[in-house]
Amino acid sequence: AFEFQSIRYAASYAKIKTPDDLVDKIFASYIEKYKDEFELGELTAYEKASRILNDFLEKNNALKTFNSKQRIILIASSFDKQTLSAAAWLIGNNVDISCFELSPMKIEDNYFIDINRILPPPALEDFYVEVEDKKRPTYTVKRDTAITRTALPGMDKLFKWGIIKSGDVVVIKNRDNSEAIVIDSKYVDFKGEKLTFNKWGQKVTGWSSIRIYDWALIKGNDKTLHEMRQEKMLSLENEIE
């Protein structure tokens, strides 16, 4: 799993105690492999690595605290509930781990990366995965705050609410030639090919994963499925009150 792999890396690098140890085990071999990217002159790869590392540590006043503590940063286009639950538990037990979601986007001829820190959040409990209780709803809403949840309603619920239906034309935000026709709550028809919503999004964007609710729009509507889902959840809360 993603988070466990990062812990293994952090644990292995924690054994490096001195700058010379880092140069010897990792940095010198990297420079030797990619020597065209460095101006070695008469220096060996080891000497170049030592100079670069020591200059960096001196500028950041980190010589005395070199590798005294490890920090784990997970970066992905999206995280599943299990990864967030594990990371939240680790944070709650004083492990320095953060989760960031990056979403590339194109606006006209400009490219941007939207960076969103998911963890640590204001309240870690929002991300704990609990044992499912059939009698309680799968989502909760807090007034005047962003919607927090253990699980947001899926596509089946969006169909039931009438937010999306079979035959609707959907597009991926800021992507040309992305039109697809909704078949049912799981599949769309994209250029004659039957794909799941996520596979359609991945094929259009070229990404390995995508949060389809944040990127899919019904053609003619400027709100994403996630935004429409949030509005519906808030309206349901208002009806209850």
Automatic annotation (TrEMBL):
<protein>
    <recommendedName>
        <fullName>RAMA domain-containing protein</fullName>
    </recommendedName>
</protein>
